[in-house]
Fold FAD:protein FMN transferase.
Amino acid sequence: MKKITLLALFVGLLIMAGCAPKTQKYVYNEGTVYTTLYHFIYSSPNGKDFKDSIELKMNEFGNSLSTFIPTSTISRINKNDSTVKVDPYFRKCFLKAEEVSKKTNGAFDMTVAPLVNAWGFGFTKKDSISPGLIDSLMKTVGYQKVKLVGDKIVKENPNTMLDASAISKGEAVDMVCDYLASHGCKNYMVEIGGEVRAYGVNAKGETWRIGINKPNNKGLYDDNDLEDVIHLNDKALATSGNYRNFYVKDGKRYAHTIDPHTGYPVQHSLLSSSVLANNCMTADAYATAFMVLGVEKAKKIVENDPNLEAYFIYAGDNNMNMVWYSKGFKNLIIK
């Protein structure tokens, strides 16, 4: 579950948009898509509202990568429909997922879907967990077991299923940004389900600002309770955290991030992973991968990749929240 504080900031920006000079013509859109909320603000030529056109594009995107749509490309692949050919959205997503999987040694893995479902965090009903079930499902997991050959997905095991939820919202953000830019919008902030990308300035002529929530181990959050606020321009930010999507059974807490190497929910100190990248699809995938890897392994990847910056919140001694951020991220924090 990716969550960063945007609602309060968007409301403030909407007010400013109404007060901006008419030549700026900022437009505000909000709604629901992919079982989550979206918020868009953009300076539009002649003040044109692109909401209807964007929603058509997002529906088209969902028909490719949503596992909640039975006839989507990814759902048909999961059902082993031999007639399905991958579309451009799916191809782009799969190739990026494969790239990130390799760079994170499989910490990011689209084939983790059966495990996510079994633990009750996916698109099917929760199973009764047992070591035997996990061992059985692990035989279907592994990004190397699925290949893109031409316009077809080829599986080693027909029971392998794909889940793009940890990367597709980021790709959808990028799609909307590209659409706005192609229609002459010079300034915009696009957010879907907490994943965000921004370009240019807001209606007040200032760089866009994004807040990062303080994790709450009760699964709650307060829009006004921020760990930090950053400037965001021509970059994307995605956040993944285990502090909101979990359940407790027999006194034990089970987080929604499943380790593809073990088949079990991760058990480490990292509470929230926020990643900056040039596009939101990349940021989205790495934010999830880092939640699997934990603080130390994630830091090594960030420090060795000039295209990534990160901000980690983790549990320190006495359950006090601690923060680590990369050098590039530090420069964006508003003091």
